[in-house]
Amino acid sequence: MGNATAENTSLCSIDHTIHQTLAPVVYVAVLVVGFPANCLSLYFGYLQIKARNELGVYLCNLTVADLFYICSLPFWLQYVLQHDNWSHGDLSCKVCGILLYENIYISVGFLCCISIDRYLAVAHPFRFHQFRTLKAAVAVSVLIWVKELLTSVYFFLHKEVVEDGDRHRVCFEHYPLEPRQRGINHYRFLVGFLFPLCLLLASYRGILRAVRRSHGTQKSRKDQIQRLVLSTVVIFLACFLPYHALLLVRSLWEASCQFARAIFNAYHFSLLLTSFNCVADPVLYCFVSESTHRDLGRLRGACLAFLACAGGGRAREAYPLGAADASGKSDEPELLTRLHSTFQTPNSPGAGGSPAGGLA
What we know:
disordered N terminus, transducer, G-protein coupled receptor, OGR1_rcpt, transmembrane helix, mainly alpha
Protein backbone atom coordinates (compact mmCIF):
# COMPACT_ATOMS: atom_id res chain seq x y z
CA MET A 1 0.00 0.00 0.00
CA GLY A 2 2.91 2.26 -0.58
CA ASN A 3 1.00 4.33 -3.12
CA ALA A 4 -2.10 4.72 -0.99
CA THR A 5 -4.18 7.78 -1.73
CA ALA A 6 -5.58 10.24 0.76
CA GLU A 7 -8.92 8.45 0.46
CA ASN A 8 -7.65 5.27 2.11
CA THR A 9 -4.93 6.70 4.33
CA SER A 10 -5.26 7.84 7.92
CA LEU A 11 -3.07 10.94 8.04
CA CYS A 12 -2.11 10.95 11.73
CA SER A 13 0.72 9.07 13.36
CA ILE A 14 -0.44 8.22 16.92
CA ASP A 15 1.17 6.32 19.79
CA HIS A 16 -0.88 3.11 20.24
CA THR A 17 0.84 1.98 23.45
CA ILE A 18 -2.49 1.58 25.25
CA HIS A 19 -3.38 -1.12 22.72
CA GLN A 20 -0.26 -3.13 23.44
CA THR A 21 -0.50 -2.85 27.23
CA LEU A 22 -4.07 -2.59 28.47
CA ALA A 23 -6.16 -3.93 25.58
CA PRO A 24 -4.76 -7.51 25.60
CA VAL A 25 -5.46 -7.81 29.34
CA VAL A 26 -9.07 -6.65 28.89
CA TYR A 27 -9.71 -8.87 25.87
CA VAL A 28 -8.30 -11.98 27.54
CA ALA A 29 -10.27 -11.30 30.74
CA VAL A 30 -13.53 -10.84 28.81
CA LEU A 31 -12.85 -14.01 26.82
CA VAL A 32 -12.07 -16.14 29.87
CA VAL A 33 -14.91 -14.84 32.05
CA GLY A 34 -17.47 -13.65 29.53
CA PHE A 35 -17.72 -16.72 27.30
CA PRO A 36 -18.70 -19.30 29.97
CA ALA A 37 -20.83 -16.74 31.82
CA ASN A 38 -22.81 -15.93 28.70
CA CYS A 39 -23.19 -19.60 27.80
CA LEU A 40 -24.79 -20.17 31.21
CA SER A 41 -26.88 -17.03 30.77
CA LEU A 42 -28.11 -18.38 27.43
CA TYR A 43 -29.18 -21.60 29.15
CA PHE A 44 -31.06 -19.73 31.88
CA GLY A 45 -32.67 -17.50 29.27
CA TYR A 46 -33.89 -20.64 27.51
CA LEU A 47 -35.48 -21.75 30.79
CA GLN A 48 -37.29 -18.42 31.01
CA ILE A 49 -38.65 -18.83 27.48
CA LYS A 50 -39.70 -22.38 28.30
CA ALA A 51 -41.62 -20.94 31.26
CA ARG A 52 -43.40 -18.55 28.84
CA ASN A 53 -41.56 -15.56 30.33
CA GLU A 54 -40.98 -12.78 27.82
CA LEU A 55 -37.90 -11.57 29.69
CA GLY A 56 -36.17 -14.77 28.56
CA VAL A 57 -36.46 -13.55 24.96
CA TYR A 58 -34.66 -10.31 25.79
CA LEU A 59 -32.06 -12.10 27.89
CA CYS A 60 -31.30 -14.62 25.13
CA ASN A 61 -30.96 -11.88 22.50
CA LEU A 62 -28.72 -9.86 24.80
CA THR A 63 -26.55 -12.93 25.39
CA VAL A 64 -26.34 -13.82 21.69
CA ALA A 65 -25.16 -10.28 20.90
CA ASP A 66 -22.49 -10.56 23.62
CA LEU A 67 -21.34 -13.96 22.32
CA PHE A 68 -21.04 -12.60 18.76
CA TYR A 69 -18.78 -9.84 20.06
CA ILE A 70 -16.76 -12.26 22.20
CA CYS A 71 -16.14 -14.40 19.11
CA SER A 72 -14.51 -11.39 17.42
CA LEU A 73 -12.09 -10.79 20.31
CA PRO A 74 -9.39 -13.22 19.07
CA PHE A 75 -9.08 -11.09 15.91
CA TRP A 76 -8.83 -7.88 17.93
CA LEU A 77 -6.32 -9.53 20.25
CA GLN A 78 -4.15 -10.50 17.29
CA TYR A 79 -4.53 -6.96 15.93
CA VAL A 80 -3.28 -5.20 19.06
CA LEU A 81 -0.48 -7.72 19.65
CA GLN A 82 0.76 -6.99 16.11
CA HIS A 83 1.04 -3.29 17.01
CA ASP A 84 -2.27 -2.31 15.38
CA ASN A 85 -1.49 -3.87 12.03
CA TRP A 86 -4.51 -5.65 10.53
CA SER A 87 -3.24 -8.79 8.79
CA HIS A 88 -6.59 -9.82 7.31
CA GLY A 89 -8.74 -8.37 4.55
CA ASP A 90 -11.03 -5.37 4.54
CA LEU A 91 -14.16 -7.55 4.78
CA SER A 92 -13.00 -9.27 7.97
CA CYS A 93 -12.19 -5.86 9.45
CA LYS A 94 -15.71 -4.63 8.66
CA VAL A 95 -17.32 -7.73 10.18
CA CYS A 96 -15.25 -7.52 13.38
CA GLY A 97 -15.81 -3.78 13.65
CA ILE A 98 -19.56 -4.20 13.19
CA LEU A 99 -19.64 -6.93 15.86
CA LEU A 100 -17.78 -4.58 18.21
CA TYR A 101 -19.76 -1.40 17.67
CA GLU A 102 -23.22 -2.84 17.00
CA ASN A 103 -22.96 -5.01 20.12
CA ILE A 104 -22.99 -1.77 22.09
CA TYR A 105 -26.31 -0.63 20.62
CA ILE A 106 -27.94 -4.05 20.57
CA SER A 107 -27.02 -4.38 24.26
CA VAL A 108 -28.35 -0.90 25.00
CA GLY A 109 -31.58 -1.73 23.17
CA PHE A 110 -32.26 -4.95 25.06
CA LEU A 111 -31.25 -3.47 28.43
CA CYS A 112 -33.81 -0.77 27.72
CA CYS A 113 -36.43 -3.42 26.85
CA ILE A 114 -35.74 -5.27 30.09
CA SER A 115 -36.08 -2.08 32.13
CA ILE A 116 -39.40 -1.16 30.49
CA ASP A 117 -40.73 -4.69 30.93
CA ARG A 118 -39.84 -4.62 34.62
CA TYR A 119 -41.52 -1.26 35.06
CA LEU A 120 -44.74 -2.51 33.44
CA ALA A 121 -44.65 -5.67 35.55
CA VAL A 122 -44.36 -3.74 38.81
CA ALA A 123 -46.31 -0.52 38.20
CA HIS A 124 -48.90 -1.65 35.60
CA PRO A 125 -49.21 -5.45 35.82
CA PHE A 126 -52.64 -5.63 34.12
CA ARG A 127 -53.01 -2.43 32.11
CA PHE A 128 -50.28 -3.25 29.54
CA HIS A 129 -50.37 -7.02 29.73
CA GLN A 130 -50.53 -7.32 25.92
CA PHE A 131 -47.03 -5.84 25.68
CA ARG A 132 -45.61 -8.46 28.06
CA THR A 133 -46.06 -11.59 25.97
CA LEU A 134 -43.62 -13.84 24.12
CA LYS A 135 -45.02 -12.71 20.77
CA ALA A 136 -44.50 -9.03 21.64
CA ALA A 137 -40.98 -9.68 22.92
CA VAL A 138 -40.05 -11.53 19.71
CA ALA A 139 -41.45 -8.70 17.58
CA VAL A 140 -39.50 -6.06 19.52
CA SER A 141 -36.32 -8.17 19.32
CA VAL A 142 -36.66 -8.49 15.54
CA LEU A 143 -37.06 -4.71 15.24
CA ILE A 144 -33.89 -4.09 17.27
CA TRP A 145 -31.82 -6.53 15.19
CA VAL A 146 -33.16 -5.17 11.89
CA LYS A 147 -32.45 -1.59 12.97
CA GLU A 148 -28.84 -2.40 13.84
CA LEU A 149 -28.26 -4.54 10.76
CA LEU A 150 -29.50 -1.69 8.57
CA THR A 151 -27.17 0.69 10.39
CA SER A 152 -24.25 -1.67 9.78
CA VAL A 153 -24.79 -1.37 6.02
CA TYR A 154 -23.24 2.10 6.33
CA PHE A 155 -19.88 0.54 7.28
CA PHE A 156 -19.92 -1.85 4.31
CA LEU A 157 -20.10 1.12 1.96
CA HIS A 158 -16.75 2.56 3.03
CA LYS A 159 -13.21 1.28 3.29
CA GLU A 160 -12.28 0.60 6.91
CA VAL A 161 -8.71 -0.76 6.59
CA VAL A 162 -6.49 2.29 6.08
CA GLU A 163 -2.82 3.07 6.38
CA ASP A 164 -1.67 5.38 9.16
CA GLY A 165 1.37 7.64 9.35
CA ASP A 166 3.54 4.71 10.50
CA ARG A 167 2.49 2.61 7.47
CA HIS A 168 0.40 0.29 9.65
CA ARG A 169 -2.87 -1.12 8.28
CA VAL A 170 -5.29 0.03 10.96
CA CYS A 171 -8.87 -1.21 11.23
CA PHE A 172 -11.83 1.07 12.01
CA GLU A 173 -9.50 3.93 12.95
CA HIS A 174 -9.58 7.29 11.19
CA TYR A 175 -7.59 10.19 12.69
CA PRO A 176 -8.76 12.86 12.46
CA LEU A 177 -12.41 11.91 11.93
CA GLU A 178 -13.64 12.03 8.36
CA PRO A 179 -16.61 14.34 7.67
CA ARG A 180 -18.82 11.34 6.81
CA GLN A 181 -18.27 9.89 10.28
CA ARG A 182 -19.62 12.86 12.19
CA GLY A 183 -23.22 12.35 11.10
CA ILE A 184 -23.32 8.65 11.98
CA ASN A 185 -21.67 9.40 15.33
CA HIS A 186 -24.34 11.97 16.17
CA TYR A 187 -26.97 9.36 15.31
CA ARG A 188 -25.23 6.77 17.51
CA PHE A 189 -25.11 9.20 20.43
CA LEU A 190 -28.67 10.53 20.22
CA VAL A 191 -30.65 7.52 18.99
CA GLY A 192 -28.40 4.66 20.05
CA PHE A 193 -27.49 5.90 23.54
CA LEU A 194 -29.21 9.02 24.87
CA PHE A 195 -32.81 8.09 24.01
CA PRO A 196 -32.56 4.54 25.48
CA LEU A 197 -30.81 5.96 28.55
CA CYS A 198 -33.72 8.33 29.18
CA LEU A 199 -36.18 5.43 28.88
CA LEU A 200 -34.10 3.28 31.23
CA LEU A 201 -33.83 6.01 33.88
CA ALA A 202 -37.56 6.77 33.66
CA SER A 203 -38.42 3.06 33.98
CA TYR A 204 -36.24 2.47 37.02
CA ARG A 205 -37.46 5.68 38.62
CA GLY A 206 -40.98 4.30 38.31
CA ILE A 207 -39.90 0.97 39.81
CA LEU A 208 -38.28 2.67 42.81
CA ARG A 209 -41.33 4.87 43.32
CA ALA A 210 -43.66 1.84 43.27
CA VAL A 211 -41.45 -0.02 45.73
CA ARG A 212 -41.27 2.91 48.15
CA ARG A 213 -45.06 3.35 48.08
CA SER A 214 -45.65 -0.31 48.82
CA HIS A 215 -47.04 -0.70 52.35
CA GLY A 216 -46.03 -3.75 54.30
CA THR A 217 -42.90 -4.47 52.29
CA GLN A 218 -39.97 -5.34 54.54
CA LYS A 219 -37.22 -2.74 54.61
CA SER A 220 -34.61 -5.37 53.73
CA ARG A 221 -36.59 -6.29 50.62
CA LYS A 222 -36.95 -2.64 49.60
CA ASP A 223 -33.21 -2.14 50.04
CA GLN A 224 -32.51 -5.24 47.96
CA ILE A 225 -34.69 -4.03 45.09
CA GLN A 226 -33.18 -0.55 45.23
CA ARG A 227 -29.63 -1.93 45.17
CA LEU A 228 -30.46 -4.07 42.14
CA VAL A 229 -32.08 -1.16 40.30
CA LEU A 230 -29.29 1.29 41.09
CA SER A 231 -26.56 -1.22 40.24
CA THR A 232 -28.17 -1.70 36.82
CA VAL A 233 -28.05 2.02 36.14
CA VAL A 234 -24.49 2.32 37.45
CA ILE A 235 -23.24 -0.54 35.25
CA PHE A 236 -25.05 0.91 32.24
CA LEU A 237 -23.47 4.32 32.80
CA ALA A 238 -20.02 2.93 33.63
CA CYS A 239 -19.87 0.79 30.49
CA PHE A 240 -21.41 3.17 27.96
CA LEU A 241 -21.41 6.79 29.19
CA PRO A 242 -17.62 7.50 28.97
CA TYR A 243 -17.42 6.12 25.43
CA HIS A 244 -20.39 8.09 24.14
CA ALA A 245 -19.31 11.28 25.87
CA LEU A 246 -15.90 11.09 24.17
CA LEU A 247 -17.50 10.01 20.89
CA LEU A 248 -19.53 13.22 20.98
CA VAL A 249 -16.44 15.28 21.85
CA ARG A 250 -14.55 13.78 18.91
CA SER A 251 -17.45 14.38 16.55
CA LEU A 252 -17.79 18.02 17.55
CA TRP A 253 -14.17 19.16 17.88
CA GLU A 254 -11.71 16.69 16.35
CA ALA A 255 -10.29 18.37 13.28
CA SER A 256 -6.53 17.96 13.67
CA CYS A 257 -3.94 15.33 14.49
CA GLN A 258 -3.00 17.27 17.62
CA PHE A 259 -6.52 16.93 19.01
CA ALA A 260 -6.69 13.26 17.95
CA ARG A 261 -3.46 12.48 19.80
CA ALA A 262 -4.65 14.31 22.93
CA ILE A 263 -7.87 12.33 23.19
CA PHE A 264 -6.68 8.96 21.83
CA ASN A 265 -5.86 7.22 25.13
CA ALA A 266 -9.00 8.39 26.92
CA TYR A 267 -11.21 7.45 23.96
CA HIS A 268 -9.78 3.95 23.61
CA PHE A 269 -9.89 3.36 27.37
CA SER A 270 -13.60 4.21 27.26
CA LEU A 271 -14.02 1.82 24.33
CA LEU A 272 -12.40 -0.95 26.40
CA LEU A 273 -14.92 -0.24 29.17
CA THR A 274 -17.76 -1.20 26.84
CA SER A 275 -16.28 -4.71 26.64
CA PHE A 276 -17.02 -5.31 30.31
CA ASN A 277 -20.71 -5.13 29.47
CA CYS A 278 -20.34 -8.71 28.17
CA VAL A 279 -19.38 -9.77 31.71
CA ALA A 280 -21.84 -7.51 33.54
CA ASP A 281 -24.92 -8.61 31.57
CA PRO A 282 -25.07 -12.24 32.76
CA VAL A 283 -24.06 -11.28 36.30
CA LEU A 284 -26.67 -8.56 36.60
CA TYR A 285 -29.63 -10.10 34.83
CA CYS A 286 -29.08 -13.77 35.52
CA PHE A 287 -26.94 -14.64 38.50
CA VAL A 288 -28.58 -12.16 40.91
CA SER A 289 -31.88 -14.03 40.64
CA GLU A 290 -32.68 -16.62 43.27
CA SER A 291 -34.61 -18.60 40.67
CA THR A 292 -31.36 -18.75 38.72
CA HIS A 293 -29.60 -19.94 41.86
CA ARG A 294 -32.05 -22.82 42.02
CA ASP A 295 -31.44 -23.71 38.37
CA LEU A 296 -27.70 -23.49 38.93
CA GLY A 297 -28.11 -25.78 41.92
CA ARG A 298 -30.06 -28.28 39.84
CA LEU A 299 -27.36 -28.15 37.15
CA ARG A 300 -24.66 -28.68 39.76
CA GLY A 301 -26.63 -31.56 41.30
CA ALA A 302 -27.06 -33.22 37.90
CA CYS A 303 -23.32 -32.95 37.21
CA LEU A 304 -22.45 -34.38 40.63
CA ALA A 305 -24.90 -37.22 40.14
CA PHE A 306 -23.40 -38.01 36.75
CA LEU A 307 -19.82 -37.95 38.05
CA ALA A 308 -20.57 -39.94 41.19
CA CYS A 309 -23.19 -42.37 39.86
CA ALA A 310 -20.76 -45.27 40.41
CA GLY A 311 -20.20 -44.22 44.01
CA GLY A 312 -23.62 -45.16 45.33
CA GLY A 313 -25.45 -41.85 44.99
CA ARG A 314 -22.99 -39.70 46.89
CA ALA A 315 -23.96 -36.66 44.86
CA ARG A 316 -27.62 -37.13 45.77
CA GLU A 317 -26.75 -37.02 49.44
CA ALA A 318 -24.63 -33.91 48.98
CA TYR A 319 -27.40 -32.19 47.03
CA PRO A 320 -30.73 -33.81 48.06
CA LEU A 321 -33.64 -33.68 45.68
CA GLY A 322 -35.95 -30.77 46.28
CA ALA A 323 -33.65 -28.99 48.73
CA ALA A 324 -33.46 -25.97 46.48
CA ASP A 325 -37.22 -25.75 46.14
CA ALA A 326 -38.28 -26.24 49.75
CA SER A 327 -39.11 -22.60 50.26
CA GLY A 328 -42.80 -22.98 51.07
CA LYS A 329 -45.26 -20.14 50.73
CA SER A 330 -44.33 -16.55 51.25
CA ASP A 331 -46.14 -13.73 53.00
CA GLU A 332 -44.63 -11.04 50.78
CA PRO A 333 -46.98 -8.35 49.46
CA GLU A 334 -48.42 -8.36 45.97
CA LEU A 335 -45.91 -5.81 44.66
CA LEU A 336 -42.96 -8.13 45.31
CA THR A 337 -44.94 -11.06 43.96
CA ARG A 338 -45.23 -9.23 40.64
CA LEU A 339 -41.55 -8.29 40.67
CA HIS A 340 -40.45 -11.84 41.48
CA SER A 341 -42.68 -13.34 38.83
CA THR A 342 -40.66 -11.61 36.12
CA PHE A 343 -38.03 -14.31 36.48
CA GLN A 344 -39.95 -17.53 37.18
CA THR A 345 -38.59 -20.88 36.05
CA PRO A 346 -40.72 -23.81 34.91
CA ASN A 347 -40.38 -25.64 38.22
CA SER A 348 -40.16 -22.70 40.60
CA PRO A 349 -42.54 -22.74 43.56
CA GLY A 350 -44.00 -19.40 42.48
CA ALA A 351 -45.26 -20.71 39.15
CA GLY A 352 -48.65 -21.44 40.62
CA GLY A 353 -49.23 -17.94 41.94
CA SER A 354 -47.15 -17.69 45.11
CA PRO A 355 -44.02 -15.52 45.20
CA ALA A 356 -40.85 -17.07 43.82
CA GLY A 357 -38.81 -15.62 46.62
CA GLY A 358 -36.14 -14.18 44.32
CA LEU A 359 -35.42 -10.91 42.61
CA ALA A 360 -34.81 -10.63 38.91
